[in-house]
Amino acid sequence: MKTGGLTGISWEAFHALPLEEKRPYLERRGGRGEPFHTLFAQQFDRPLLERLAALSNRIRFLSKSKDGALWLKSLLCHKRAMLYFSQPSSRTFLSHLAACQILGLTTGSVRDTSISSEFKGESKEDSIRTFSSYFDMIIMRTPEQGLAEKMSWELSNSERPVPILNAGSGKDQHPTQALLDIYTLLRSFETKGGLHDRTVVFCGDLLRGRTVHSLSYLLTNFPRIKQVFVAPPQLQADESTFAALRAKGVEFEVSDDLRSVVPLADAVYMTRIQDEWDAAKGDSAKIDTSRFKFGAEELALLPENGIIMHPLPRRDEIAVCCDHDPRAMYWRQMRNGMWIRAALIATTFGFEDEILARPL
Ligand code: ASP
Fold first, then answer.
1. pLDDT in tens, 48-86
2. Rounded CA gap, 80 and 133, in Å?
3. What residue's CA is closest to ligand 1, atom 2?
4. Active-site residue list
5. Is it the case that residue 347 has pLDDT exceeding 80?
6. Which of 73, 178, 180, 248 supports an S-S bond with 104, CB 3.0-4.6 Å?
């Protein structure tokens, strides 16, 4: 496997680059723009997203038969992946684990740093160097913004340059969640005219919701997708999100009235209040979020072809009574995560052409 090109640049110079300009440094050498390290949504353009969606479909279909599943499992049985999750996770952890299993990678994990050497005072840098000694890929989630980026640079400049997948970095980005969100949108609109000329409504905690930041960016790759941001003023998306949309000439609107925008939505992307980031415990509870929930009344306003999405976990921002409506996409969205993460891992190791060439 060829590594990414992070070796020709100092950390300071790389870190200072605008996100869009970081992409070439993170690509798999000799590929067609596929990532080696996956750190930001800005690494993915429409052709790459569509290739990943096609590869996810192929993996999904191959997995249905014993022959196909066994063949997939043979592909990466010589590789090992480390899941380093120092922040809570259910779906992201399990779907990456399941994705590794689909492709035959063996896995190890650290989920509780109090039982690793970090507790003895080892730096995160040293911990990650240690993982890279035993594993061929590191899938990591940390509360620290930017740690995955720093570690990618460190590893690319070490004797064991293994790829890093960012599975959530602080309040900042969650690129693999955005990939599964795009895959869900592509699948949902596949037979309904495609992913263009749509309105996507984001609702909830748009300031601290990293999935929103990554998905908002990925949507800019598709033509004429209007984005509507519905949140209480204290939790509204910040200027960096809007500046990125302006720079790309994307139409967007800011609102605090969910009911008025649901009738115009092709997709409503609900999010929970991210109160783990409160400066003082209980700060979020002081904000009136009662109008930023999706229930029976909103469901009645949603167009027939509209869909409801959520990165999960949910609290009460989507009423349970919506769960069995065919437009509720959040369960399928969650399962899509396993397929597109398998596609991303296969791509990182350069196996996409082989998988696509395999007859069903
Ligand atoms: N699971 C998502 C994340 O890790 C969304 C959430 O936690 O609300 O960001």
1. 999 999 999 999 999 999 999 999 999 999 999 999 999
2. 11
3. 311
4. 91-92, 120, 141, 174
5. yes
6. 73
